[in-house]
Amino acid sequence: MAINWLAIIAATAAAWIFGAIWYGALSKQWMAAIGFTGADMKDASGKAKIPVIPMVVSLIAEFVMALVLAGVIAHVAKSGVTVKSGMTTAAICWLGFVITTLATNHAYGKAKLSLTAIDGTHWLGVLLIQGAVLGALL
């Protein structure tokens, strides 16, 4: 199967936008879970700091995730690639690889359970959205 770059880019963009909305809505809870205050998110002059590097890293990570997920979906969808098969494959990948790794890393780092819940649910949303977009466009 040839790579459908439009599907990969659309899945990446949709996931990235979801993340912006997710963490925008849960910013106070997320900051509390990692021990940040409002002051931690401002520069010396009091202006809000835009976390450019983490945003770029997440965009690249979501691009790679979409690319790999497209390949996995194509390999496992025996009866054809659909939105359902894309989302099912994404959910299985999340359960098998993402939440297990995240929970382990957070446990060793002694992170609050709320951080694991916020971040883990975010990555589930990312993968489900990517699975749906890829399933629709592949």
Topology, element by element:
Blueprint lengths: L4 H21 L1 H8 L17 H25 L6 H26 L4 H25 L1
Helix pairs in contact: 1-3, 1-5, 2-5, 3-4, 3-5, 4-5
Task: Please give a structural write-up.
This protein has one domain. The chain is built from 5 helices and no strands. It has helices at 5-25, 27-34, 52-76, 83-108, 113-137. The longest helix is centred in the last third of the chain and has 26 residues, at 83-108. The radius of gyration is 17 Å and the shape is globular.
Query: Which shape, going by the Cα principal axes?
Result: globular
Count every beta strand, where a strand is a DSSP E run of 2 or more residues.
Answer: 0
Largest β sheet strand count, sense and barrel closure? none
> pLDDT average, as an integer?
95
Stretches with pLDDT under 50, minimum 5 residues: none
Beta content? under 5%
**What is the tally of helical segments?**
5
Structural class: mainly alpha
Distance between the termini: 9 Å
What count of domains describes the coordinates? Answer: 1
List the secondary-structure elements in sequence, H or E.
Answer: HHHHH
Radius of gyration: 17 Å
**What helical percentage do the residues reach?**
over 70%
